[in-house]
Amino acid sequence: MPMSKPKRRAKSKSATSIVKPETKVEIPKEILVEFVESKVKLKEIKFIKDIKVINVFGNHFRINVWHSYTEPERLCATNWIEHSYFVKYDNGTIVDETLNK
Predict the structure, then answer these.
(1) Is the pTM for the entire model greater than 0.85?
(2) Is 58 within the bounds of a domain?
(3) What would the pLDDT profile of 37-53 be if each residue is shown by its tens digit?
(4) For residue 59, what are the contacts with CB-CB under 8 A and spacing of at least 6?
(5) Which of 9, 28, 57, 68 sits at a 20 to 30 Å CA gap from 15?
């Protein structure tokens, strides 16, 4: 008895959905600098090497403030994340949602 090939199901058009890409939300540099200056002590500002902003989801971001310091007897600088904030950017303002320890 010859074996017949299994019948293939027709693809349903309802199974495919169109996903609209989200518009990319960014924090303007002026607002970011103002936020960091309000959080960081004045004496620490000279050690700031970089400020990294990572979009976690939607309008929620992780802001990492990197510090750098070169000791006199060392050839290379030491770099570390001194401050890290979980924030929400909404209507031109940054709301700090970082959990306090």
Answers:
(1) no
(2) yes
(3) 999 888 888 889 999 99
(4) 25, 88, 89, 90
(5) 57
